Amino acid sequence: MKVQALIALKAAFPLPVLLQVAGLARSTFFYHQARLQARDPQETLKTAITDIFTANHARYGHRRIHTELLNQGWTIAKKTVLKLMRPLGLACKVRRKKRYNSYQGDQGTIAPNLLNREFDATAPNQKWVTDVTEFSVGDRKLYLSPVMDLFYRQIISHTIGISPNLDLTNTSLRNALSCLEPGQQPLVHSDQGFQYRHASWRTLLKGAGATQSMSRKGNCYDNAVMENFFGHLKEEMFHNVRYISTDALARHLNEYIHWYNNQRISTKLEGLSPVQYRAQALAA
Questions:
Q1: Do residues 116 and 145 make contact, with C-beta atoms less than 8 angstroms apart?
Q2: Using CA of residue 218, residue 221, residue 225, residue 230, what is the dihedral sign?
Q3: Torsion angle of alpha carbons 90, 93, 94, 98, nearest 10°?
Q4: For 98-119, how does the pLDDT look when each residue is reduced to its tens digit (9 = 90+)?
Q5: 8 Å CB contact between 282 and 125
Q6: Are 72 and 88 a contacting pair, CB within 8 Å?
Q7: How many C-beta neighbours within 10 Å does residue 12 have?
C-alpha cells in the first residue's frame, strides 16, 4: 500500500522526501514499483475465462469454463480456473429447488417404472423423458412441457402454455413422435401426472408403437435427468430475472432451449453441446 501511495504522489513531491516520510529504502521502492507495473502473466487466461463466462450469459461455473478452455487448447487445472474466477467476480448462480407437482390423485392408468433410472441410451430415439414445470410472472402462470432424448440430452420438442392441460403435453409428445424414423419405438418416461395417465396420452404412444414408463409416486429421482434440466433452466434464466409478461418469458424460454441444445456444453457429453454430440456420434 505504501508503494502504491508513493507512486501516486511522486509526480507532485520529490521522491527522496516521500521515501523518508514512508520509511522505505530506495531499492525497496523501485523493486515493488517494478512488480506492480509488470504485465500480469495470467492476463490472457483471465480474458479467456471472462469471455467464456460472458458469452454464456453468466451461466457457467468453473467446471464448464475449464472444459471450454481445454477445447480452446489451454492446459490448466479446474482449481486454477476457480481461483482466478473469484477475484474477477465471476460467480455462477446457485440452483434452488422448486417444482410443479402435477399429481392429482389416482385417477387414470399407471404404467410401471420400466426406465428404472437407467438414464443412458445407446442410440437416438431409444429413451425419452418428459415432465411439466411451472413459472410465475406476477399473478399469472406459464407452463413448459419438454421432451428430452436421453442419448444426447437434447430437447427434441417442447410446448409452452398458460395451462398444464392435456393439449400442452399431448402437443409436445405429438411433435416429438413426428420426428421418429421407421422402426424407432422409444420408451417414454414421465411422472404420474394426470396428463400422462390420460387415455389420450396412451393413445398417442400406442399409435407410434412407443412404450410408456412412469416414475414411482412422489419419487423425483426416477426422472432425475429432466429434474436436472429444469433446475439449470430456472437458475440460469429465470430466478434472477424480473419478467414483465408471460410473452417475454416465453420468448426467453425458446431462446434458452435453442442455446441449451446448440451451445451449452455438458460434461456428460464429453464437453459438447447436445447437437454437437449427436453430430459426432452419428458421424462415427
A1: no
A2: positive
A3: 180
A4: 555 655 555 668 999 999 999 9
A5: no
A6: no
A7: 7
According to DSSP, residue 244 is labeled: S
pTM: 0.71
What is each CA distance from 219 to 116, 222, 224, 227, 238, in whole angstroms? Answer: 12, 6, 9, 11, 25
Cα–Cα distances (Å) from 31 to 34, 36, 38, in that order, read: 5, 9, 11
pLDDT at 145 over 70: yes
Q: What pLDDT digit, counting tens, does each position of 35-75 carry? A: 766 677 778 888 888 888 888 878 788 888 888 888 888 88
186 Ramachandran zone, left/alpha/beta (phi>0; psi -120 to 50) = beta
In which element (H, E) is residue 71 found? Answer: helix 62-71
Rounded to 5 degrees, what angle do the CA atoms 53, 248, 128 make? 70
Nearest to 180 by CA among 159, 211, 202, 201: 211
Find, among 128, 65, 2, the residue nearest to 267 by Cα: 65
